[in-house]
């Protein structure tokens, strides 16, 4: 095992419950019959990717520029409320002690991700932070580009990395990149199909350095 790569929303920070609430308010105003299934589809996607999906499925009238503006407002409210997932700091300390390189691969804009990591005092744990701006507008999860680029930035081969993901789109991205993937099914997360993960945990206490090393 040469590296561990974390998704951000729902893995590092407990933001998913806030995203569900704020997105419901927004999408109810622009998409007829918005429901939880629609939210499930976009977990892990870039903002532009979710716009293209809903533009195709629902022919929404809002422009991309207005959509992104609204989404930035949503993000501000979400990240004002969220905190670190329970057990995250302890896990990071264990992995750092074992000298395992760590990274973040998130479909969220880098400004948001770095701001939260810095405010929570954990940005120094990560050797690489790869976000939406680092990949093409249409190359977000479930495509593998973000994981392939993260491995490249770390100087390691994808097949020697383990990804930690809470979303179907993210797991597909990691597996397509050739990585092992751990699915997380936390109480406040958005229900997702995690069946393609190598194994699933319900809290970070279930992870040890030894268990991670056994995957590769």
Architecture blueprint of SSEs:
Elements: E1 3-6, H1 16-30, H2 36-42, H3 47-58, H4 64-81, H5 88-97, E2 102-105, H6 110-119, E3 128-130, H7 145-154, E4 161-165, H8 168-176, E5 180-184, E6 199-201, H9 209-213
Parallel strand pairs: 1-2, 1-4, 2-3, 4-5, 5-6
Helix pairs in contact: 1-4
Describe this structure in words.
The structure is a single chain. The protein has two domains: 143 residues, HAD superfamily/HAD-like (Rossmann fold), CATH 3.40.50; 66 residues. The chain is α/β, with parallel strands linked by helices and 216 residues long. The chain is globular. α1 packs antiparallel against α4. A six-stranded parallel beta sheet has the order 3-2-1-4-5-6, sandwiched between helices.
Which terms summarize this structure?
216 residues; Rossmann fold; 2 domains; 9 helices; 11% strand; globular
Total helical segments: 9
Coarse shape: globular
Low-confidence stretches: none
- First-residue to last-residue Cα separation: 6 Å
| Second-tier CATH architecture of the largest domain | 3-Layer(aba) Sandwich
What's this entry about, in short?
By secondary structure, the chain is an alpha/beta fold.
